[in-house]
Design a protein that fits this description.
The chain is mainly α. It has six helices and two strands, in the order αααβααβα. Strands 1-2 form a two-stranded antiparallel sheet. Its main location: nucleus. This is HUWE1-associated protein modifying stress responses 1. InterPro entries: HAPR1 (IPR040308), HAPSTR1-like (IPR029196). Keywords: Nucleus.
Length: about 220
């Protein structure tokens, strides 16, 4: 029976025509979105490396210039230090070097933060693609239990044929209670129409504002 189910799943995956146009569009959007995220992450990573390398070169140059122009004592005639000379030039060199070091730290920390953000984003898109690939192999009606097991990284239990295939009467209420493990049809148009009807009926109720209670 497992071999038969495996063959049926593969045939369902290959039969792209079984999906509606909006379903095929959603699948294509998910696949294309992950490719865009990977490309964006690669471009941002290369730009961050180049930016960090340029900042490092500026920092190294400023520190070398600060060391070369350092003031010396007045112990001999070769010293460039003069007690009566203002130190504004040396102070400006020190400030420039300190600013370069600060920029190096800022660019490094921003690169790490951006890497974490892209990692979370790529993981989210990867999860969507894995879930979409899993949905391609499933039937139209999917058990809520199977979805939770898939999201938690567990395999669905082996079921009998009479448990996995159920016949739902047209007058049966598809609303699942917390104790129910029945199948849920995500693509059932009747549930969408029912939700719109309830939303319309709720808006027709008189609110305290319509009764001028708060006026």
């Amino acid at each position: 029976m497992d071999d038969h189910e495996h063959v049926s799943d593969e045939s369902f995956l290959d039969s792209w025509a079984r999906f509606s146009p909006i379903e095929r569009e959603c699948f294509q959007h998910i696949d294309h979105e992950e490719t865009l995220v990977d490309r964006e992450h690669e471009q941002e990573r290369n730009a961050a490396i180049e930016r960090l390398w340029a900042t490092f070169q500026d920092t190294a140059s400023s520190l070398a210039h600060l060391y070369k122009e350092r003031p010396l004592c007045d112990c001999c005639d070769q010293c460039t230090y003069n007690r009566n000379q203002p130190h504004e030039r040396y102070w400006q060199q020190f400030q420039g070097a300190a600013n370069k070091v600060t920029s190096l730290y800022r660019d490094g920390s921003e690169g790490i933060r951006a890497g974490f953000e892209f990692g979370y984003k790529a993981g989210y898109k990867k999860r969507n693609k894995d879930l979409a690939n899993w949905l391609r192999k499933k039937k139209r009606s999917i058990r809520r239990e199977d979805i939770l097991l898939n999201l938690s990284g567990h395999s669905p239990p082996r079921r009998k044929v009479n448990d996995s295939v159920r016949t739902i009467s047209p007058n049966h209420d598809l609303t699942m209670s917390p104790e129910s493990n029945g199948e849920f049809d995500f693509l059932n148009d009747s549930r969408i129409a029912e939700g719109r009807k309830r939303h319309t009926e709720f808006n027709l109720f008189e609110t305290p504002h319509k009764r001028n209670k708060f006026s």
